[in-house]
């Protein structure tokens, strides 16, 4: 069923009577994972739930899919996409990590994006204008398992038209559905802040720089400063 060109809306929850009048399937988690992974491997862009807001995802190593993601959002081509992986060890494949693994474990999985120097293994067409890349491990079992099934990182960005509000339910980005192969409806996301993840640059040894405060700023600063002794990078 994943080979159809029309959007597939796959729901973990029963569809509501007032829901959109598009083709919808109720399926168990394994079927949804399999269908979404297949769409990604075919080079499509999908809509997915995370631990903070709904996102758009594609295979980060697929240059055509990355370009599609920018097109779907109407996103400025010089704004970077983060990558999403399933396990902390995966970060070392695509990033040059210069902090202790304990620090990674204190923040991930969770609503935090960590920015490091990118490794040579990462697709050069992903954010070619910068040597840095942000990496996430959402505290969301579906997303982590999806990364594991794909066997490579996902490029991940918010599911909305660029400069519009972040979304907490799939109906809020319904205007994007025709451009997506699969929309995974995991139900409403309970974090009502719509702030997305806290983004912190850790590319300078011993320093941190908050790029976006996001929804987990206080707890992130506590880990960086109190537990690991990092200081704010005053040069940024």
TrEMBL record:
SUPFAM superfamilies: YrdC/RibB
Listed EC numbers: 2.7.7.87
Catalytic reactions on record: L-threonine + hydrogencarbonate + ATP = L-threonylcarbamoyladenylate + diphosphate + H2O
Predominant cellular place of this UniProt entry's protein: membrane
GO biological-process terms attached to the record: regulation of translational fidelity
General function of this protein: Cytoplasmic and mitochondrial threonylcarbamoyl-AMP synthase required for the formation of a threonylcarbamoyl group on adenosine at position 37 (t(6)A37) in tRNAs that read codons beginning with adenine. Catalyzes the conversion of L-threonine, HCO(3)(-)/CO(2) and ATP to give threonylcarbamoyl-AMP (TC-AMP) as the acyladenylate intermediate, with the release of diphosphate. Participates in t(6)A37 formation in cytoplasmic and mitochondrial tRNAs. May regulate the activity of some transporters.
Quaternary structure note: Interacts with RSC1A1.
NCBIfam families the UniProt entry points to: L-threonylcarbamoyladenylate synthase (TIGR00057)
Family of this protein: Belongs to the SUA5 family.
Record-given protein name: Threonylcarbamoyl-AMP synthase
Organism listed in the record: Pleuronectes platessa
């Amino acid at each position: 069923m994943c080979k159809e060109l029309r959007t597939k809306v796959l729901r973990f929850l029963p569809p509501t009577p007032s829901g959109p009048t598009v083709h919808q399937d109720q399926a168990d988690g394994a079927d949804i994972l399999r269908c979404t992974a297949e769409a990604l491997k075919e080079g499509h862009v999908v809509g997915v739930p995370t631990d903070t807001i709904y996102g758009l995802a594609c295979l980060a190593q697929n240059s055509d899919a990355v370009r599609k993601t920018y097109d779907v959002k109407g996103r400025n081509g010089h704004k970077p996409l983060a990558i999403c992986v399933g396990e902390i060890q995966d970060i070392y494949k695509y990033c040059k990590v210069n902090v202790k693994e304990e620090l990674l474990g204190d923040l991930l999985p969770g609503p935090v994006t960590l920015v490091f120097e990118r490794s040579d293994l990462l697709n050069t067409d992903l954010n070619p204008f910068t040597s840095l890349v942000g990496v996430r491990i959402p505290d969301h079992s579906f997303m982590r398992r999806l990364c594991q099934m794909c066997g490579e990182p996902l490029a991940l960005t918010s599911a909305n038209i660029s400069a519009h509000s972040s979304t907490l339910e799939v109906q809020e980005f319904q205007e994007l559905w025709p451009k997506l192969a699969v929309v995974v409806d995991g139900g409403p996301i309970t974090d009502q802040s719509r702030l997305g993840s806290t983004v912190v640059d850790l590319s300078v040894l011993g320093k941190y720089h908050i790029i976006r405060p996001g929804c987990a700023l206080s707890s992130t600063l506590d880990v960086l400063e109190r537990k690991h002794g990092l200081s704010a990078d005053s040069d940024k």
